[in-house]
Amino acid sequence: CLFVSFFLLYSFFFFFSSRRRHTRCREVSWARRCVQETGVLAAIGISEILQHFTKNFRDYFTTGDEARTLPDLSIVVTIVIGALLFSFLTHSTFTGAEAYSSPSVILSGKKPGGGKEIIDDYREAYYWLRQNTAEDAKIMSWWDYGYQITGFSNRTVLVDNNTWNNTHIATVGRAMSSREPEAYRICRMLDVDYVLVIFGGNAHYQSDDISKFLWMVRIGGGVFPDIVEADYYGQGQYRIDDLATDTMKNCLMYKLCYYRFWEVQSSYSQETGYDTVRRAVIGHKNYKLDYFTEAFTSSSWIVRIYKVNSPVNRNPAMQSNVAKFMSKKAKPTFAPIEISNNLQTIN
After folding, report:
1. Do the Cβ atoms of 298 and 304 come closer than 8 Å?
2. Which pairing describes strands 138-140 and 194-198: parallel, antiparallel, or unpaired?
3. What pLDDT score was predicted for residue 65?
4. Which of 219, 214, 224, 286 is nearest to 251 (CA)?
5. Most distant CA pair in the chain: distance in Å?
6. Beta-carbon contacts of residue 160 (< 8 Å; ≥ 6 apart)
7. How far is CA 147 from CA 9, 119, 141, in A?
8. Pair 209, 251: CB distance under 8 Å
């Protein structure tokens, strides 16, 4: 009876979980812990059940007594066990197809007609980096994509999935949460050539950098106290629309993700610039980038890459301000060192 109970518990769990496309994390964690032990007990239970009830089948086909009838209970139990095993097989096939056959860099969705749609923006962007950037180019992105960029594009990244250097990650978080001039200063200090951001507002992709942005702010604020998380909340909420704060609208992450997005019709029932993930129209439009230049945007706008401008390629107004500042710098007042006399003294 104990084996039978474990088998029924095991079978019914997978039967109902196969009916649900999204299983809660607690259920998945529980299943991972118990699947081996419960599976062994269930296998013993099903073996005992089939051995007991199939004995009637063997007796029915071997005795040759035409008057002997097959018990109805044996038929019912065999059909039920077969149905449960078939349900488990269906669940295993579904799990293998959905979880193990789809790499994280290739996204899949459904078209309006119901067909399957493959979104390959990650590989498209990584291939562009490999083919169109210098071999010694340095890429700044959030740490989630570090290993992918290194593996697919063979380019150097500032931070990757080896998150042992919290200060370095916090510096990237500070750059993403700062205004453009300050972010540019950090990029120049770190010798960054390109900045890569992930944006899902056009493709209904929820795991983008805007969704992760508050973690960049928190990690950056843990090292740099001048970054305050409350400055990025509009009316007490995390927003990207007209009610977003000025700090949020002018930070580097916001400007790089939503640059030129006000030209895009992402939803037929909404105006241009509608973020399909946050379900709101962006609050900052028609701005220009002074320190960064758009280099690449993938087909579905998921991956966006910007080149860090060199000092001579920045906005002309910025160049004139820098020139005025350099002309006003005080010249050194100390006397030059007479190297020749020192060398004669040494000799």
Report:
1. yes
2. parallel
3. 55
4. 214
5. 127
6. 143, 146, 147, 149, 150
7. 41, 20, 11
8. no
Please report the pLDDT score of residue 117 as a whole number: 79
pLDDT digits (tens, 9 = 90+) for 307-345: 999 886 555 555 555 455 445 444 443 334 343 333 333
Q: How far is CA 85 from the centre of its chain?
A: 36
pLDDT digits (tens, 9 = 90+) for 82-131: 887 888 788 878 877 766 666 678 887 776 677 777 889 999 999 999 99
Q: Residue 101 carries which side chain, given as an amino acid letter? A: S
pLDDT digits (tens, 9 = 90+) for 147-158: 999 999 999 999
**pLDDT averaged over the chain?**
80
Among 266, 260, 319, 251, smallest CA distance to 295 is for: 260
Cβ pair 124, 303 in contact under 8 A: yes
User: Which are the contacts of 41, defined by CB distance < 8 A and separation ≥ 6?
Assistant: 2, 3, 6, 7, 10
Alpha carbons 93 and 244: distance in angstroms, whole number? 45
The residues facing 196 across adjacent strands are: 305
* For range 274-283, the mean pLDDT: 95
Q: How far apart are the first and last CA of the chain?
A: 101
Tell me how far apart the alpha carbons of residues 260 and 289 are, in angstroms, rounded to a whole number: 10
Distance CA 80, CA 5 (A): 14
What pTM was estimated for this model as a whole?
A: 0.67
CA 199 – CA 206 distance, rounded (Å): 9
Q: What is the pLDDT of residue 71?
A: 64
Parallel, antiparallel, or unpaired for β 292-297 and 274-275?
unpaired
- Torsion of Cα atoms, 95 then 99 then 100 then 101, to 10°: 100
**46 half-sphere exposure, CB direction, 13 A CA radius:** 18
- In this model, does residue 210 exceed pLDDT 60? yes
